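Quiz preparation item.
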């Protein structure tokens, strides 16, 4: 069963900074604050064609995994309306510190309009620009890891045009949101309205790539640009992307290795029909579940146990 469109979810984790040979003598210890935002939306307050079966389950699995390590700060938001979604995101952004790694995970519908990506509230009444969230998180945190299990079929395309004529949806964006994401600046938020029967809203498929400028941001899509992703495989109750992500993140490997494992696993689970996509660059090696012994070389790394 195909599902979601596109979006975001976050989680940030306590960091162990290993510098120099002296650090090799002991196991990684938490050194920097952890901050995570995890969002799962099932759209039970929206029309039936918006409903998603596994999104809240997916977000729950990610939140539980992150919380399994004492000391991590994890904010879990499920089925928020537009006010709750905006409030949760703003609260999270305000909680970030320069020493944080912002880990954001989103499971739900995502919509691409004119090259910009948006998150959809649970009642399907508003879209929030994802780029704005990433830009502000990067300004506040050490780095940003954004996981989007949201590249699903477009629910707006399946609506009856006759029933949507004259109706619109709120769109929260800023001057920095669009095909280009500049991690060095943030614009002023504004609200516009998009007709529900507009071609821009009904004709999109999957998410667009971010044109990332600057360093310190890595975006991980459930599938490649312009394609849709599966909602679940078999009786697992989770999407193939999230199932593979949590499995890989639990291993003591560098993030790049983890993401390679996720890609391999998702391709196998979907028989080659879905391929996760990664954009962005980081200046340091990140370990989500600790550093393997072969990395005890005195090289400066970030370890997130």
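Solution:
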């Amino acid at each position: 069963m195909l599902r979601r469109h596109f979006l975001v979810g976050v989680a940030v984790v306590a960091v162990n900074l290993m510098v120099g040979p002296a650090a090799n003598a002991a196991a990684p210890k938490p050194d920097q604050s952890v901050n995570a935002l995890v969002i799962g939306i099932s759209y039970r307050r929206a029309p039936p064609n918006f409903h998603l079966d596994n999104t809240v389950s997916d977000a729950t699995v990610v939140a539980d995994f992150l919380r399994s390590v004492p000391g991590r700060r994890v904010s879990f938001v499920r089925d928020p309306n537009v006010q709750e979604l905006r409030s949760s995101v703003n609260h999270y952004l305000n909680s970030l510190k320069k020493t944080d790694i912002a880990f954001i995970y989103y499971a739900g519908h995502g919509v691409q309009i004119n090259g910009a990506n948006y998150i959809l509230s649970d009642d399907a009444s508003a879209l929030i620009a994802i780029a704005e969230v990433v830009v502000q998180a990067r300004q506040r945190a050490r780095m940003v890891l954004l996981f989007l299990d949201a590249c699903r079929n477009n629910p707006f395309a399946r609506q009856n045009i006759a029933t949507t004529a004259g109706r619109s949806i709120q769109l929260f964006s800023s001057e920095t949101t669009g095909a280009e994401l500049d991690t060095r600046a943030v614009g002023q938020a504004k609200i516009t309205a998009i007709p529900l029967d507009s071609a821009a809203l009904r004709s999109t498929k999957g998410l667009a790539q971010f044109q990332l400028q600057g360093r310190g941001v890595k975006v991980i899509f459930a599938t490649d640009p312009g394609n849709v992703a599966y909602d679940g495989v078999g009786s697992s109750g989770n999407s193939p992307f999230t199932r593979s992500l949590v499995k890989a993140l639990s291993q003591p490997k560098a993030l790049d290795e983890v993401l390679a494992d996720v890609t391999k696993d998702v391709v196998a689970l979907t028989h080659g029909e879905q391929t996760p996509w990664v954009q962005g660059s980081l200046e340091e090696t990140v370990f989500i579940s600790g550093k393997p012994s072969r990395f005890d070389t005195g090289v400066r790394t970030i370890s997130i146990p």
